[in-house]
Amino acid sequence: MVQLGTVNRIIKAYALIGFCVSAYALYVEISLENDPDFKPLCDLREYVKCSSAFISPYAKGFGIVRYIFGEDSTFNVPNGLTGMLFYTLSFALSCSDRDKIVNIHYYLAIASNVSTIYLASVLVFVVQELCLVCLITYFINAISLLCVSSKRRQLLLSTHLKPCKDD
Fold first, then answer.
1. pLDDT per residue over 15-46, tens digit each?
2. Which residue in 119, 80, 99 sits closest to 162, CA to CA?
């Protein structure tokens, strides 16, 4: 079994990578909004391009917030910004081995993977493009969930295996 310290370092590494990928996604989205001729590095081929995903209505507020709060709502932020906030929080939460904090982190990781499944479905069935930036984010979310689950399992096992004070 991998030591908790190692799991925490892996979670932090993936959180940093996720933050950078999300920052790049935000940069591309803002650049595309301001300059329609902008060509992002992630547009590799006719069918492999991130720009289609980042100019779609699903690139802000997961495509859902606009229906609830309106297109101009302060909650309707780019998904890249949401990702940056999530990965910052994930990094911070990985600094603690307290049960409550780990459980919060675990459920946030599950939520990020639910959003991954939703956005991957949108990418395949609605946008119909292959977005490498999106795929990298999905991979990061999956690995993060596995690591947080491993950490949680280790902590649960260690609390069940501790000897009683009377022993």
1. 999 999 999 999 999 999 999 899 999 998 88
2. 99
